[in-house]
Design brief:
homotetramer, six-stranded parallel β-sheet, Rossmann fold, alpha/beta
Chain lengths: 460, 460, 460, 460
């Protein structure tokens, strides 16, 4: 890397890219970037151009001389890359609209990461990421893959398990958000607290200690019920049951609301779904994105606009930049990442990908051993990991039986006939991005199965 | 045991007792019983008398001279017992009515074994059984405890884990039922098939082999969809999704319908709940029981009446008698029982109680190692066992937080505010049998929480 | 199997064959054999003829009409076999002489099963047995493979792990011997005791219960020190330390003397080695075998001769015949066998082959879950299994580094330069039977390494 | 800790103390010490005075105002301590002489950490450290215990397991030594390499990566055979077998020579034992210590003398000071420590103490998950940990049977009659420090057992 670092961002046309640029600019002194390649697909050409020009403007306004390349040729971009980041979305935001609306049209949570929607996002994404990995083996075999494509845990797991690629780190902004808001609750600087996370992406818990080594988790929990607790913009703010948190003496992640308060979360999503002026989260995000791209078009804008925070991925790119800088400069920064377990969460197999606090340095992620969880957390964690394994297997094999199993055991999907309808309609809705299920989809079409939700139909 | 065997049945006033007697009479040559003690509590005195006299008539009509003792003095009965069987129901059938109706009044499955109802049955039963174990340590330290009180798995686990009593075997009739019906499906005698069960009580799977050693599980699954498949009388007959069963190549137990077809099972229960002419399963059973006791009163009746089969526990007592005879005569009979895992189900802790095929002989249950389960089964099994552990801990400690956790992670209970209402009303409905939760109950009463279901209110 | 069972014995020219015949004749009513094929290699032709004629005479003297076929054509024999038994010895008894004498020439135990000798026996045998398995996949894919070729545990493990053949059961006579002698010690019939074995071949422990379910292990241990304790003919009779046995409350197997009394065992072997009138065990066995074959030549002999008991494998063939009959007639007989763990010994991986009490029937071996062992047993067991895994890998890959590791971690081989000499001389001594190590052997020869023991040199 | 840190060193009269002082002085700016208490027992009064005065002189020569208190009153010292370090030796160096000479007098390795000697060191030390922990619970319940008393792994494990004290970190200088010497081998600064250690104290392996994330373990191994490899002063320099190291692609610790080259290590120790001009390591150390104390007496000396390096514990105290500073200042320094596993070494129980690379900060040690080891390492590691567990149990209970088991399974002790002699003589030799074995010792004395080694007899 003597000539400086080459960074490739797949899904470079994303609205997140300016935040990523900001993060790199901020860290240039420790992470001397030579060139950045933003890669996208044909359907994303226009966005790529808009955001790419914005990105170049940001660098031009900085003291650093970095060239941002825009390309639809992934292989050209990957050649000799040092770091590859992935933030693409197979089927774009419309696919997320489908992930959310089809289940909701049957009164069921779509939830884009671990629920029915998340399952389908994984089915669409895993084959594509495995293709990218094959290219990387050939074109940049020493590069690190930094994944923030959701569902980040399953995607990272599949990269190692099925792709055989170990130099990968999965990222998510949820832990960063939690650390920022919780430290405020007890009037501390985040640096004055020691966080230990363990679990899976969007399904983890953490404990907190202060600099005297005392466990202050309970203290934070108490404060969460005193005051207004900051929550991720993309999760509806229903509080956890306090007695549950006190019992576990751990803080769940925001997404645990889908499991610990499923009734209220579902009702909220249905409300938004049923209100044509609101729409599901994906529809709201589409609106925000459109606004963002309008802003990005402004040739005088060379700073990340305020409005990006509304998008819901705050700190995401910051986590990515910090991870890359930590690897490059062997900084040993504690970051919460998806990585091979190796025992850190002893209740899961050492080969499973988990999301844990890890020290990030030149050797990649070194996960901290968290110790066994208590039964209530352990059991559900084991269920979720095994659900993930079913989804990954389905994504790779196109086996309908194992996909059905994933649906049936997923705790956000009530099993039964309705679940089957949702499953079948999602297969149809995403048929262009699920070649591995072509036979089953054909069978469904032959049987006259049809997507019912009008919005989804309009997107086909 | 030179003078013959002394058997004590706690909950002897149960309508099942005649079946138990029939089982003992049938096996008298290998299990020479000297005396039988039927124990009950004051509220059950009348039933005890009716069924006790019936029991004595059955023996009198047999070639064997066995005395049936009736008593309310448990300690007197336990003295020098060889085998103690438990079939009591704390709070009688009315408690089961509450277990079922309170959740259903909120549109939620009550399900008396693993759902909200089953949790409360465990909370009521575990402290009582631990008392019985304390008496046994003193009065009959060499006796075997044969438990068929539900939830049989959790109760058996608590007996070992918290009672420190290892000579216990938990029984259930579900596996026997499965073996009887499935062999018919492929036109075999049950003896021509080799069944291997693994999992938890009311949450297990099995595979089947024929005498050539071939796996015929898939063949049975196919037949289940060809013809009318016999199911336990107490489970509504919605079929499993065939693709799921083919994928796992295992046969789930009947109770898995609550998990694998939760939508349909809930709808069926709600239908019965809402139809005043039907009522929940407990109400139906109450009716059946009343009829049975009318029959038992007939001083000329000295045989188990046909109608008992409708009660839903067919083969239950037969399994119990066969277990006792197998221990006594070291028969090495393969029976599906709840027993300490010891590794038989490697996906759970060796110390956990599991339900597996075991060879029963003088050394008790020797569980057969089943091997690891595939992800879809493994994950859910691990969740359920950990849910059980939370319930047991709540039963023993009276800790509300851990009880709340059990409710939240239980897959039959959608988490949220409604679940809390159900939890609170169940605490109130069962207050006389939950001394460990006295403080919480008082708090709820002070806060004006009330049971809403009229039928349950009428039973208070 | 309608026309009766076809049995194939590989290594049919062994002196054990008459015992095997006796076992089959005794069980003919439950195991109706149609034909027996004794297979051997060219070097064994003469012995095959002698013992084969003897075998036919035994059947002719019985009421049953069974034809004993003798052949050097393994593939012809395997065609449509129902059961294949293996009792061959690659390199014949001379190889065992080398296994024992080379280590002893350096003052180190040779020990033909788990020590240096056993390691080399595995290296020679595993590739051959994997070839046999390949033939079976083609010629008799439904047959059961009953292995008594030593080291039985490693060979059985390799058959499953590397051969992918699950229908295999490994046998050993050590547990039978223990059960016969121990029951006498406390004046019981073996049928009045319940034995539970767990561990590895030649490295297991067992507990014993009586028909009242009481643990009588301690009682037997006490008796072992009162009276003359019967031991296998092939193990020198030094007693275990009583305090050790009382502490574990388990009975080790005879071969544990090599580990628990290694000093005395080594001294005894060295004594025999140094006495030209005695020689190592293999040399003694060669003598016994020669005498046996003289007897077998007698055309009037049609019964197993008394002298066979001296050979050291008493009950071996009986265990094999009983295993085959139990599978054929689904007898559910408890037999101690080497089989896939599946959790029975939770301290080892479910995929490992272990030696445990199992119920043998049409479904093969159903191992009984034994539960976790205490530290002192557990640690050593884990070491031995991992040592076995290194040996198997070396046998299959011919990797010298992993073979060296097996030598260094084997507790019967003191690590250091002398161990390397032993390792190298054994490679040379067995060069004709270790094609996978051809390169290393060539390198050693080029370096002028030579076998020092005169007897071994004379056998080259 | 607003008024500065209070440090208590138990065994403060040790010759190591000046190194400890040097380490604290060097780190004063980040670890502002208020007072240091050196505690010793009456037999150590003279040494305590000598080294204590030397320590005060060192501080006086520094720019910092720190008072060194000398006391025989442990409880006075512990009051309100922030950090307690332990470097005491029950029975002083004479006890180590016995640990080494008794086994060697029977031709067996004494080895003061994991062999027979180490077992006895643990038996003497564990009860004392558990007493200290009881005092700490009362007098300084928030203090950290930094243990460098050997056998550091077993002692640390016992503190957690039997003492119930979680705020403990066990230290050893072996990993530091390895890191210093190995980086030189490949001409790197230690900071340019990333070390990952896993295993047990004096029984661990490590891998090494460079700043490009590449595994350079094999490169270092190659260099170890090119040049003179630096080894700990207290381990004889026989090289490992290169093929073994290449196979494992890990670097064992220096103490692994006792296991991987046991023949040569034993011969070396016997040579020293038999040479009256050399003597065992303990005797050599006694000589070095005497010389050191002569130096310390010099009232003009206020710097750690060069000769201390010969003592064999170089970097020991440095590791301790760095650990304390890292906790105090939350430095997140990667240090190799003995700490609760929590899954870091998945082949051992999460509750076991292991020795691993951990990040040390205000929350104590956060062990890095290493992942599963390969069979050859795994098996032996599991044996050693279980051996440790037997020793700890023996230390706490005084049970002779479990002590015998530890002896028999310890790979450095050939089992048999000679081992029993060694065991018995060691019990006698240490009788004043083994109150828990008083009965057994009395029995041995009554039976006339006597220590044979003259040197040991002279120390009684």
């Amino acid at each position: 890397m003597t000539k400086g670092v080459k960074i490739v961002t797949i899904g470079g046309g994303s609205s997140y890219t300016p935040e990523l640029m900001e993060g790199f600019i901020k860290r240039y002194e420790e992470l001397p970037i030579r060139e950045i390649w933003l890669v996208d697909i044909e359907e994303g050409q226009e966005k790529l151009n808009i955001v790419g020009e914005m990105a170049q403007r940001m660098w031009d306004a900085s003291p650093y001389d970095v060239k941002v390349h825009l390309t639809l040729d992934r292989r050209e971009a990957l050649k000799d890359a040092d770091f590859v980041t992935t933030q693409f979305r197979v089927g774009l935001l419309d696919a997320r609209v489908k992930d959310e609306r089809v289940p909701l049209s049957y009164g069921m949570a779509g939830q884009e990461t671990n629920g029915a929607g998340g399952i389908f996002k994984a089915l669409r994404t895993i084959p594509v990421i495995l293709n990218i990995v094959e290219d990387m083996k050939e074109l940049c075999p020493n590069a690190w893959l930094i994944n923030f494509t959701n569902p980040s845990g399953m995607v990272t797991d599949a990269i190692i398990r099925y792709g055989g690629w170990e130099k990968v780190i999965g990222l998510c902004n949820v832990p960063v958000m939690a650390m920022m808001t919780e430290s405020k609750l007890i009037e501390k600087d985040p640096k004055e607290l020691i966080y230990s996370f363990a679990g899976l992406n969007h399904f983890h818990w953490h404990r907190v200690q202060d600099l005297a080594g005392n466990d202050v988790t309970g203290q934070i929990i108490d404060k969460m019920y005193d005051e207004e607790n900051g929550m991720p913009a993309n999760i509806h703010g229903v509080p956890f049951f306090k007695e549950q948190l006190k019992q576990m003496n751990l803080i769940p992640c925001g997404y645990h609301r889908y499991y610990y308060r499923s009734e209220e979360m579902l009702n909220h999503m249905l409300e938004e779904y049923n209100d044509p002026n609101v729409g599901t989260r994906a529809q709201q995000v589409k609106q925000t994105e459109a606004e963002l791209f309008e802003l990005y078009k402004d040739p005088t804008l060379s700073e990340k606009p305020e409005q990006l925070a509304k998008r819901g991925g705050a700190y995401y790119s910051d986590a990515a930049c910090e991870t890359i800088a930590s690897i490059y400069a062997n900084k040993n920064t504690p970051i919460v990442v998806s990585t091979k377990n190796d025992g850190a969460v002893p209740d899961l197999d050492p080969e499973d990908v988990v999301e844990v606090t890890a020290y990030i340095g030149a050797a990649g992620a070194r996960p901290i051993a968290f110790g066994s969880l208590e039964p209530a957390q352990k059991g559900w964690l084991q269920l979720m990991k095994n659900m993930e394994l079913c989804v990954e297997e389905a994504a790779v094999t196109g086996d309908y039986g194992i996909l059905l199993q994933a649906f049936i055991i997923n705790p956000l999907i009530p099993s039964g006939e309705t679940a089957i309808h949702v499953l079948h309609e999602l297969l149809l809705a995403h048929k262009n991005h699920l070649p591995q299920f072509a036979d089953k989809i054909q069978e469904l079409e032959a049987a006259g199965v049809e997507v019912k939700d009008e919005v989804v139909r309009s997107l086909q």
